[in-house]
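Biopolymer transport protein ExbD: structure, please.
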Amino acid sequence: MAASLNQGNGDLSEVHEINVTPFIDVILVLLIIFMVAAPLATVDIAVDLPASNAQPQPRPNKPVYLTVKPDLSLSVGNETVGRGALPGVLDASTSGQKDTRIFLRADKLVPYGEVMQVMNLLRAAGYLKVALVGMEQASPL
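Here you go.
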């Protein structure tokens, strides 16, 4: 409860106003936190993903995305890598943990054979847990 001090009067009177300054401070701090954290949680490579109606699975805290772009080049996160350097870059991204799930994203225009070649590269590098990423499709009513 807030009180106002009067110089001439001996009794204290209540102030019926809400102090919103601490509330605004908290909201601004949360806004800054979300503005900084949101870009870190996304991958900025534009890929036209095919749609899927499968149930989405929970995403880990630090997912490792391997992207096959329409020109058949590969990217781990936002970094473009050659096919020969892929095992080393994946080892660096996963801290050498071969049981880490790799999220494989491929553009619609990438032939199925190319996706299988990338999956064979992952298997040869020792990464056997591969999740295919697609756009969520609205279920029919």
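Notes: The domain at 76-134 is CATH 3.30.420.270 (Nucleotidyltransferase; domain 5).
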